[in-house]
Amino acid sequence: MEQGEDRNRGHNGDQADRHSGRQGHEPSTQQSDIRPRGRDTGSTDGAQGRRAPHGRSRQSRRTGKGTGRRRSAWKGYSPEQLAARAAAVPVIVYPEELPVSARREEIAAAIGEHQVVIVAGETGSGKTTQLPKICLELGRGVTGMIGHTQPRRIAARSVAERIASELGTPIGPGGVVGYQVRFTEEVGENTLVKLMTDGILLAEIQSDPQLRRYDTIIVDEAHERSLNIDFILGYLARLLPRRTDLKVIITSATIDSERFAEHFGREIIGDRGQPFTVPAPIIEVSGRTYPVEIRYRPLAPDDVEPDSDDAGGSPASGSATPRPGPAAPGELSEVELEALTSPDPAVRAAARARREAARSGAGATALSPRNQGARGKGRGRADSAANESGDPKDQVTGILDAVDELLDEPGGDILIFLAGERDIRDTEAALIDHLGARYTPDGRSHTPGAIEVVPLYSRLSAAEQHRVFEAHRVRRIVLATNVAETSLTVPGIRYVIDPGLARISRYSNRTKVQRLPIEPVSRASANQRAGRCGRVADGIAIRLYSQGDFEARPEYTEPEILRTSLASVILQMAALGLGAVEDFPFLDAPDPRQVRSGLQLLTEIGAIEPAGAASARSDDAPGRGRRGPHLTGIGRRLARLPIDPRLGRMLLEAGELGCVGEVMVIVAALSIQDVRERPVDKQEASDALHRRFADPTSDFLTYLNLWRYLRTQSRELSGSAFRRMCRAEFLHYLRVREWQDVHAQLRQLARPLGLDAAPVELPTARSIRAATEALEPGSHAAQIANGGVAAAVVALGRSADTPDADAIHRSLLVGLLSNVGNWDERRREYAGARGTRFTIWPGSGLRRKTYDWVMTAELVETSRLFARTVAKVNSRWIEQVADRAGLTRRVFGEPYWSTRQGAAMVHEKVLLYGMTLVADRPATLASVGTDSARQVAREMFIRSGLVEGGWHARHGFVERNRELIEELQDVERRRREHGLLADDTALFDFYDDRIPEEVTSAAAFDAWWKEQRRTTPDLLDFTRELLLPGGGDASGFPDTWVQGDLTLGLNYVFEPGRPEDGVSVQVPIEVLGRLTPEGFDWLVPGMRAELCVATIRALPKRVRRQLVPAPDVGAQVRAQIEQEFPTPPGASCPEVPFEEAFSRVVSRLKGVEITEADWAEAAQRLPDHLAMGFAALDGRGRVIDRGRDLVSLQQRLSGRTEAAVRSVVRGALAQAMAEAQERQGSRGADGRPGRKGRKKKAGQQAAAQNPDGAARTTGTAGAGAGLEERKGLTDWPSGVPGLGDPDGSTIPASVESAGRAGLVVRGYPALVATSARSADLRILPDAVAQLGAHGAGVTALALARTVLPTARVTSRWSAQESLILAASPYRSTEALVEDMQVAGARIVAGRWATSASGCPLAEVRRREVFASLVGVMRDELEDEVYRVARQAAAAFRAAREVDRVVSEHTSLTLLGTLQEVREHAAALIPDGFITVTPPEYLAHLERYLRSLVMRVEKAASAPSAASQDAALAFQVSQAQEVVDKARAKAASLPADPQREALLEEARWMVEELRVSLFAQTLGTSRKVSLQRITKLCAQIA
Questions:
Q1: Could you tell me the pTM of the whole model?
Q2: How confident is the model at residue 390 (pLDDT cuts 50, 70, 90)?
Q3: Is there a contact between 1096 and 1107 (Cβ–Cβ < 8 Å)?
Q4: H helices then E strands: how many in the chain?
């Protein structure tokens, strides 16, 4: 199959025609580059749907055609055949008017004497038709055919017809002249001259490398320098030395003759032995039949290249066809174009009338109608318009002016060259409008001066193209692309209009896409165009550009090999064994970048071995003599498929995935022009019909749906009905037939490769009926003809009866890796390979979708980069295919350890041609594939997974090793020494020696260890000798600390800087209150040596300088301390404090005295880890709080400690009661099951008495195991569970319960006053709290029993007392009286407690003792309350006097004194002061307040008295400061009632000091001074 023979020529206007007809008007390319194909087209059975010219039927297929097998070597003609061929040579006659005829003897002589001849002559000189006749006359063509190549199919057919006509022989098998083009072969056994496209000749090279079928090769139109021509020229240059009988004739009107002659020159050894090259002979044929006049009519008057949309851009600028804009003056708008080309005559007539009216009313500067009057020879409207206006014209206007000019010339047809089909349509519409009534659509008009407008481009059918060559009666204007530029002689052409532009196919090495920019043609192409006229009479060629522009253009067209992809060339050259592209004798060596791009594409699809493997193989076979890419198995199979390598690769992949039939249909569709048409005037209708087959995710599946539809319809309809259906549904019938032909040939070609394509499944009649019935009535699908068939086809494609769509797309993706893109949301476009950015072509079914990843069959750059035939793909498919081809590039981040995976991991980024397929995917480090990566993965597995424990392994050795390490790590923590335990390096070496090299992850380890542990289960077990090589003594670091009856655990932490660094006591919260700070300053024995040295260093400098060197002195002190202050058996430390022991030993050894201040400074400087820490633990062993100050910790957690103790006691009580109930039930008279119910109920009651769930606390059952608390008591409790005596009224001093870890939890029951006359029975955590709370609770219950009515109390007040007390700060009289009774009760209870009949209030535990207190209080309370009332009245009276005195003095000098007096009086008489003030000091309040009055009066008595008052106040402040410091110190010490009593005494001694300083006359209750107060506070420590 010859593929792409007309594509990618020097000017690709014809290619633009075909692509502009594919679903829209944006030009594109299919990347079906012209390639030397590996199959003989004539050997395939793929009939072209159109008839041969003149109605001849195609030749019957020869034996072996269509088999797909490679032809056997040609053995030549038999003698009988040679005789028949010689006899078939016709009489040869030469037209004498042709210049070539006059030089035929010279040409014949050159051909006879030389193997290669260059024939150059002007266009129209007769080279194309006369050279084959000259060769026949020389006897050529008998032993082998005369192969005559043409660049285009239409040229091959037309030239064959002309030669056959001149020889008087039929064309085809019955004559001596035949031709072969794509899908059509008109060649017989007696064919002497074979016209063919250059692609056909290339296709025959693989089956006939020596070209034995030919004895003469004529390469016509060599100036085009297409890829085919350049390859043929290079191949012939290599072949000719081996085929000395082969003649080669190179001919063209516009070639660089010397260049071609040098290329085919012969190397000869001169006389002196030096080689030199003799060029091939050149025969210049000058002259032509008729002269041609060149006229220049530039569109821009200043001879500058027009800056219009039609001008295009230069190759360097890479400009493309601009987007259509508003119609310029003289140019047709889109609406006008649609109207002028409408099939409705009335619409066309109306449009022409409007156009004519617009021209006639254009103004004074408007020209007269262009079809009226003459403007003189050689001067047309173009010149006049340009000169008058001075403005540049658009191309259409310039063409119309040139047509007007040429219509004034003698009769003859006009040929207008245009860049593409769209330009042809625009110009045709403008000409129809311009010609008006003179236009005739069919050429049959008898109107004088009628003109027919005929298009000519390769996309037309054979019949439509042949129409141009038929005889006609009216004058014609032929609108052609560059298809008419060479070889064609259109009958009747006398004039040519050349805009000087063409679409040039250019391959971008960066983006790897084929671009089709509009560029100026070369001088050679311009001369070729001019040469198309002057064939029948003197001709005129009008160039719509200036002569200077013409002369500035390049002389020759740039060879296609310098501007196209070379993938197919490289593939076929490798298959033919022609070596590397760089070494092939091309006329112009290809760009190395293009060679690399071609090699890259072939590597991408797996057709050739990668460069590294190929070079290695070349080194292994130095005798090969040729270098070049080495084909893989896939490449060898691809070389046998005469299609684009990417399409062939799709077929091969489809064979692996089981969808050959479907992919073959798609490949055939991609090999031809789109069968769908979109006429300008019926775009919406055509789009609606085509949309029936659209798949929302894939344009490729749309092809399949369309194929099924066409096959179904062709099965159901007759031939004529099928053609009518295609026309009605905007489907190009001829391209449909071509699609079918290509598919049929692909099936036959693929069969020898093992690709047996099953027919594509078609819908059944039943499914069509079902789909038709399922259509919604009145819907658009139901109204469209054959809507049911279309719906059935689409439904079949989505059903399970057809191959998976994913398999189809994966097959296609193999050939389209360079054409994938990822959606960029920010820029709203797709990011493609190598930095390209594209959008989906508007005609695609995916144009409104934004899928993450898409692939496209082609990327075409016009106004922008468009993607045609698009499908959604999965990025995983792309990665898989690219990995298989070795195209992905992986970037790995830094390795890290994954506990979950149990392996070293990296974050992987996968790139393909600059596109990110995977952004940040975790992958195992070992999967990177390099030895270093595997080595690092193994090292990280051992180090992070096994050594550092970063792998949650369930193997026994891991747990055993972990337990042993933790056990031995405790030695380091206790001894506070690093390095005792073996380091990670030793452990790493241990594992490294035992684990195989291939183990790099947890999975690999599990697989190995599963087998290994059966033989050596302890292979990976650590030993103590391994972990602790130097041994370790931890005897001085006990596990527990003993204080009294408490044994508490110790925890060692060796983390300097952390709060828990050092040794800490683990204290359960329920026993925290029983702990005292004594003894903890000794730390543990193993730390005392460091403690002694650190203590010396922490002492003040004046002390420590006498104890140097500190380590030596510290060792002596420690030894002496151990000797003098041994630790008693069962205890954790000596009995004396460490400070005392240290001071005594240092004093005795060094004679150094350490004061209390020195110890205070040392405590601040001592390292934190040398102070015992305390961690309070909850019931679950969790740390609630921690600190190094035990007292502070106890204060912070006092509430929780009390709650914990109460919880334990309540739990023990509930358990004891439940056990008692159980015992009582077990002693019953009968054992009925009902007992169990009562047992359960008793348990529920016990639980109900413990709502917080403390009953679940474990404890030891027994008497006194618990105590039930009571709230709101107003009398002595009785009948309370847990209280002693039968009546349960004796409150025990303590209750004990078993706590965690065998600890005895001791609670201290006490009556806690909650108000003046009520108390709660609570369990307190320590005896100190009990001692402070129980007495107040007893007093409150006693007062509740003896409380006096308020009226009775107030009845004893005098009038003056009542008046004073009424003004008290109390809110009511009842509150005042209640406070008085509380104070009186305290006084009475205090006297009773010190009397002979009484006892301390904290020891009142029995009801009898409490009754005694109540009796005394009942007798004495009333009188005591009255005394309290008098004292309170006196205090109130004194307070009022203080207020009076302060308010009387307003001197600024007394401002400080007055403020201090006012604040102090308020502090003495606060709200509730009667109960706040201790009873023994209540009587002194009056004196203290009177002293304030006297202080004010004394300070105001004289000017100097204020300064004296300030001095006295300073003494008071000093005393107050001493008391405050003592109180702050006491706050850091455990609670102590005696200490609290001393602080209270010191506080009131300060008041006595005020009296002694400010009111000596009042006297004091005791001796007082600053020194006495200081001495008293010193006792607090």
A1: 0.54
A2: low
A3: yes
A4: 57, 38
